[in-house]
Specification:
With about 525 residues, this protein is of the alpha/beta class. It is about 35% helix and about 20% strand. The chain has an eight-stranded mixed beta sheet with strand order 8-9-11-10-14-18-15-16, sandwiched between helices. Strands 1, 2, 3, 4, 5, 6 and 7 form a seven-stranded mixed beta sheet that branches. Strands 12-13-17 form a three-stranded mixed beta sheet. The two termini are about 35 Å apart. About 55% of the residues are buried.
């Protein structure tokens, strides 16, 4: 993990591989952002002109490298684009800082240390820059080896480059409690988010339900969480028909994992429920070629819920958080659930399975009812649930559905605050009729149009009466198949984790109902 520190030393005297400065798009060309004054002065105030000559415009994510000025111990200056310069007397948005830091950190792969001289007006800015740098430095190289060394002393990362090892933030206040807390928070959030990315990127032959459960148990021991794991025998005894039905075709048996964080002064209780399909072939309703290659990411919701409860524990938030991981592998075989089968769920309700590739809602239904039995103040489930949500919102935005408009709005605001793109979605009651079944209480499929909303309505059926609930469909942003951007890598992204953490923080502070 990349180290993060605060520094008050002068930029020129910093022993580092690079100095990172910000450049923004001004009305008449690129402008050097605050924080880089000393660097600009060393270029005789002409840094912006030099960058423009090199083709820099200040566009978001743009990275330009140039030799450091005379007298600097660092050999390179890295100018990273912040996008449009803010109006006079306005500060740079936290998300702009976060993305710029991520772009710079990724560009500095292979470096031991970089000093970031980006705009910092308060502790929140320092936290955003630190968070972006630590997320941008991420790489997943567990399964790679350097052919030139035959695997011995192999280096990580693209072209054999290891991630940036250390980030020092200039302009911070190392002895200030607010700045120290911001850095500690950034480290906790990014370490757990990057662990979630590792889980999402891990191939399914190594990450099956039992393996995921074991990782959760280790984390629980490390961070003082209570943990309970229900194996296939306990699930059968308890009547968890949804989870068992989805996992019936796999040689890797399903699990339901409960992780609990409690604070002695907490007055509120949140439950996070995550869909954890460690591989989704579609089951008997088999996915076609071209649609199953990335289905190791179908446990991203469980990874998010898992990360969020660990962060809550690491930060000591004054709120009780329970996390439920509904883990199964959806495979075709002679023992697999068939289209037309009827499952009796943990709630007692029966479900006619019309499509075995609509499996996520089945495992979530059991976990939602289990979470409801504890009567928390609110439940939030997270899932890569529907392709329909991707069609509606694209690959970078997750949908929010809820049985309470104010709660849905609060989650949307929390997501916006931490820089995650989301959008409130409705739950139209007229779509419920499409799931009527002549055989069972409800079918797992309904109308094709509005399929993401139909899935939300299905889940709503398994939330306890009177409990505030929201559903986050992260099918779009959970796994990035395109080129990296900002602090977002290719592959698993850790979508929704920062939103859940912020939700827990707001609840702990009494700012969320």
């Amino acid at each position: 993990m990349t180290a993060l520190t605060l520094s008050t030393a002068a930029a020129a005297g910093q022993r580092a591989d690079a100095i990172v400065v910000g450049v923004a798009k001004g009305a008449e060309g690129p402008v050097v952002a605050p924080g880089a004054e000393a660097v600009d002065q060393a270029y005789d105030g002409k840094l912006a002109a030099v960058l423009e000559t090199l083709g820099a415009s200040g566009a978001e994510g743009e990275v330009t490298k140039l030799p450091a000025p005379s007298g600097f111990k660092a050999p390179v200056v890295v100018a990273v684009g912040l996008g449009a310069a803010p109006e006079k007397d306005e500060a740079y948005a936290a998300e702009s800082l976060r993305r710029a830091a991520g772009s710079a950190a990724r560009a500095l792969a292979g470096s031991k240390k970089a000093v970031f001289a980006l705009p910092i007006t308060d502790a929140a800015d320092a936290g955003a820059i630190g968070e972006g740098a630590l997320l941008g430095a991420y790489s997943f190289d567990t399964y790679k080896q350097n052919a030139a060394t035959n695997g011995k002393n192999a280096k990580n990362g693209k072209n054999g480059k290891a991630p940036l090892a250390e980030v020092a933030l200039l302009g911070g206040k190392p002895r200030d409690k607010a700045y120290k807390a911001a850095v500690e928070r950034a480290v906790a959030v990014t370490e757990e988010l990057n662990r979630a990315r590792d889980l999402i990127n891990m191939p399914p032959n190594d990450l099956n339900p039992a393996a995921f459960a074991a990782i959760a148990q280790t984390a629980a021991k490390d961070h003082g969480l209570k943990v309970q794991v229900l194996d296939e025998k306990a699930l059968a005894k308890g009547g968890y028909g949804g989870i068992l039905g989805v996992g019936a075709g796999s040689a890797s048996a399903p699990r339901l994992v409960k992780l609990s964080y409690t604070h002695p002064k907490a007055s509120k209780h949140l439950a996070f429920v995550g869909k954890g399909i460690t591989y989704d072939s579609g089951g008997i309703s088999l996915k076609p070629a071209g649609h199953n290659e990335t289905m190791k990411c179908d446990m991203s919701g469980a990874a998010a819920a898992f990360a969020a409860v660990v962060v809550a524990a690491r930060l000591g938030l004054e709120v009780n958080v329970t996390c439920w991981l509904a883990l199964a592998e959806n495979m075709p075989s002679g023992s697999a659930t068939r289209p037309g089968d009827v499952l009796r769920m943990y709630s007692g309700k029966t479900v006619e399975v019309l499509n075995t590739d609509a499996e996520g809602r089945l495992v979530l239904a059991d976990a939602l009812w289990a979470a409801s039995e504890e009567n928390p103040d609110a439940i939030v489930d997270v899932a890569t649930l529907t392709g329909a949500m991707m069609l509606a919102l694209g690959s970078r935005t997750f949908g929010i559905m809820a049985n309470d408009d104010a709660f849905r709005a609060a989650i949307h605001e929390a997501a916006d605050e931490v820089g995650e793109e989301s959008w409130p979605m409705p739950l139209p009651e007229h779509l419920r009729k499409g799931m009527d079944s002549p055989t069972a209480d409800i079918a797992n499929m309904g109308e094709r149009m509005g399929g993401g909303l139909v899935a939300g309505l299905f889940l709503k059926e398994f939330v306890g009466e009177g409990i505030t609930w929201a559903h986050l469909d992260i099918a779009g942003p959970a796994f990035n198949e395109q080129a990296p951007y900002g602090y977002t890598p290719k592959g698993g992204t850790g979508s929704a984790i920062r939103t859940l953490v912020r939700l827990a923080e707001l609840t702990a502070a009494g700012d969320l109902g």
